[in-house]
Amino acid sequence: MDLFSLENKVCIVTGAASGMGKQIAIGFAEYGAHVVLVDINDFGSEETSLIIKDIGTKSTVINCNVSKSDEIQKLFTELDSLFGRIDVLVNVAGEGYGGRPEEIDLSVLKETIDNLVIGRFKMCQEAGTRMIRNGEGSIINFGSIGGWSSLGRGHTPYGMSMAAVIQMTRELSTEWASRGVRVNAILPAQVWNENLRERISKQRELEETFKDGIPIGRLGEPEEVKGLAIFLASSASTFVTGAIIPMDGGNLAMNAGGSYPGSSRIYG
Ligand SMILES: NC(=O)c1ccc[n+]([C@@H]2O[C@H](COP(=O)([O-])OP(=O)(O)OC[C@H]3O[C@@H](n4cnc5c(N)ncnc54)[C@H](O)[C@@H]3O)[C@@H](O)[C@H]2O)c1
Question: Order of strands across the sheet with 59-63?
């Protein structure tokens, strides 16, 4: 238990109102952290905060749109006055926008890059500066299997951005390793969330298509990310940095080419 303890640590989790961010925030609280719940969905963040209260630890809810650098700046100014230190940052919040690559408006690409690349970078920069000052810290960036290999189903801006998140993680881990800051990435495959449920309810065969690419034979559950996140945040992983870790039921280990249904089946 001690090896994984997050007692007295200040941990920021973005996207804490739902899905994997919510589960990570709960997991961190279970291991003793004070969790800063960052999201644009205040109602969801308050729900997460109530669960954490029941666990017996503390959390702080802050509304911040991670696509906006000025809001991130404000967030860290507030955190400086509240805590004066940041021990862990988990960059979870993020959206995927898409469409046929030959038709995508450049504004969609820019919006995705603002959200996933610039947003994550600015969060890393602000948290990293404070961690370097303290001589320690752990950053976990959420990427995607779609940033490693292509999905081929209208996710080009998302895939391009997640690939940038992976390379950013390698760069920052190398730059900051000697100054006590570790930076790692988690790459999920399809994990149930509200959007995915809605998409699959409209296009039932999609679930089978996804499962064809996942050797474990099912989609992931959001709470399955808890253990990995606690490991990366805690002293259990002090020699782990620059690691790009799939959480994908085996997707990246196999040649998932057999699961590619062809653009015509995706776009109709
Ligand atoms: N679920 C999957 O299948 C899957 C697969 C690969 C990668 N990912 C990535 O993992 C992360 C989490 O996915 P999830 O399934 O938990 O998502 P989710 O939709 O359940 O939760 C995302 C949370 O982020 C918040 N959010 C969105 N945009 C924001 C913004 N600009 N500023 C602040 N908060 C914002 C939302 O309000 C929501 O609470 C995302 O970055 C996603 O791209 C997910």
Answer: 59-63, 34-39, 10-14, 88-91, 137-142, 181-188, 244-247
Ligand 1 proximity of 65 Cβ (cutoff 6 Å): yes
- 260 annotated active-site: no
Does residue 246 have its Cβ closer than 6 Å to ligand 1? no
| 181 beta partners | 137
Distance 210 CA to ligand 1 centre (A): 18
For 177-232, the pLDDT digits (tens) are 999 999 999 999 999 999 999 989 998 888 988 898 899 999 999 999 999 999 99
Q: Is 244 helix (H, G, I), strand (E, B) or coil?
A: strand
Please say whether the beta carbons of 182 and 155 come within 8 A.
Answer: no
| CA separation for the pair 72, 161 (Å, rounded) | 19
Containing structural domain, residue 226: 2-267
Number of domain units in the chain: 1
Whole-model pTM? Answer: 0.96
Tokens of 40: 């644009």
Q: Which residue has its alpha carbon closest to ligand 1 atom 11?
A: 92
Q: Over 80: is that where the pLDDT of 40 sits? A: yes
Residue 190: which CATH number? 3.40.50.720
45 Cβ below 6 A of ligand 1: no
The residues near 90 (Cβ < 8 Å, ≥ 6 apart) are: 11, 12, 13, 14, 21, 24, 139, 140, 142, 229, 233
**CB of residue 190 inside a 6 A radius of ligand 1:** yes
